[in-house]
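Exercise 7 asks you to align residues with tokens for two separate proteins.
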Amino acid sequence: MQKVLGHSPFIYLLIATLLEVSGDAVVRMALYDHAGPARLALFVAGAVLLFGYGSFLNLAPLEFGQVVGLYLATLFVVWQGINYLAFRSVPTLPTMLGGALIVAGGAIVTYWKPA
């Protein structure tokens, strides 16, 4: 699969993040908005999406400690987008300021090479 996606860790992390956030949103919808067979189908769909997230996260061509930093930064950005699309929730100023720190921290963890 790595030959198909190349060696850019960002592609793997973007796919992993989209799968995780979508899976979490689907599970949330199953818990709060549906019952019966629809709830079960949404739980199964959420589980499949979350399995895909774990697979793509671990395929990223980075050491595990580095992948986590970049992943958390990517997760924050994608989470806000899915939160808006699925639930029409606009991030607040504190969320955006905290998110800027998350993104900066993720970049430091991933790309700062100690001397």
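Second protein for Exercise 7:
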Amino acid sequence: MGIGNLADLRQREAEQAIGRPLSLTWDIGPYEHFNTARGFGVTFHQHHNPKWGACHIRLSKKLLLAPQTRQDGIIRHELGHVIDLLCTPGALDSWAAARGVRLPPQKQGELRADSIAEAVWGEPLRYDKDTVQSTCCGVYPRPAHLGK
């Protein structure tokens, strides 16, 4: 499955899980974070591009060459950020709790995005040998040295 199809599928699944559409656009392009070994995706919320939705996910070109399990992990994590940005915090906490997942506080945005992804897809994100999100292998939860 191509990355565009995977992103579309995961967005539809997330929308079904939370019961509402996400105001979201996607693209593949440059971003300074992508020059780092772990830089594969970023989510924008407050931006000035009228063609974008309330949120915009930009993926790195190098993600196109990554294993599908890494592509999926990155997409799920970024969608976790989008859901966190577009949903009311208390309602989102209650929704996740009903699905058996306790969300960290909003100030722990990276851990929270992972937990939201777990609530949507019913399985935790893992961190592979390069400490990048994966759906198949690696450690859980997010390694502490990566920040919260």
